[in-house]
Amino acid sequence: MDERQGDQYGLSSDQQDALGVLASEDPHAGQSKWTIFRHLSPNERWPYLAQHFLPGILAAGLVLALLVGLVVTRLTRLPDPLLSVQGFNMSAHEEGFDRIKQGFMRDRGIKDGRLVDMEATLTLNGQGYDDSAKAMTRVTAGQINMVIAPTGLFPALCKRGLVAKPSQGLKGGDLRRVASQGVLVDSKGRQVSNPSHAMGLDPSRSSRWRQVPGMPDHAILGLNNVADTITYVRACVDYMDFG
User: Fold this and answer.
1) Count of alpha carbons within 13 angstroms of residue 242, beta-carbon side
2) In what order do the strands lie in the sheet with 146-150?
3) Buried b (16+ CB within 10 A) or exposed e, 85-102
4) Which of 13, 133, 139, 147 has most Cβ atoms within 10 angstroms of its Cβ?
5) What is the pLDDT of residues 141-197, one digit of tens each?
6) What letter does residue 113 receive in the DSSP assignment?
7) Helix/strand/coil for 206
8) Is residue 6 part of a domain?
9) Residues 87 and 110 in one domain
10) Per residue in 102-132, pLDDT tens?
11) 222: Cα separation from own chain's centroid
């Protein structure tokens, strides 16, 4: 093989030096990463740290942040109400709703005001800028258990699926009692004697309702999503003292 062939197929001096370095024994063989890091020069430490330690540090930090977030969320999350009553188009009677809430809490021995929600903040007008979507979402999620609306608005709540028949929440004996007292009404507020035809209760027949100044006579109280709160819904109906 002549000199040109040796240049073509042989290794250059730089390549030979590189092979020599690769073939030499690793001075750090068998040492831990932390030991190697402590013996590196200051200029070598950051690249080594970034390559060998930084991914693990970032992963541990992420896990810690998630755990802290879960703990904080659990400690600061508001308790779910035992009962939620929502008035529609009745914001002028917000103070009256609060008085009924306070009386119900005293009657049931409930100390935490967050466990009972009675307010009249939602509106329905059928013109596209009301609380229809919010109301449906909250009812579906079980965040509203009872509704109260003016008699003229109540049929709209029924059509939108925001109201369930009283027979789906009250016991048979309670239904027959309020029916005999003229408390059950249909969606238009007309008195009915057959519980299967009823869509709501007439709050004007409630002594608690009448004791609050300014509460309207022409309104209807309805039930809806009561699966998880049925005990407190029935307790609220008892507290209202229909008759």
Assistant:
1) 24
2) 116-122, 83-88, 146-150, 219-223, 200-201, 184-185
3) bbbbbbeebeebbebbbe
4) 147
5) 889 999 999 999 999 999 999 999 999 999 988 899 999 999 999 999 999 999 999
6) G
7) strand
8) no
9) yes
10) 999 999 999 999 999 999 999 998 776 789 8
11) 23
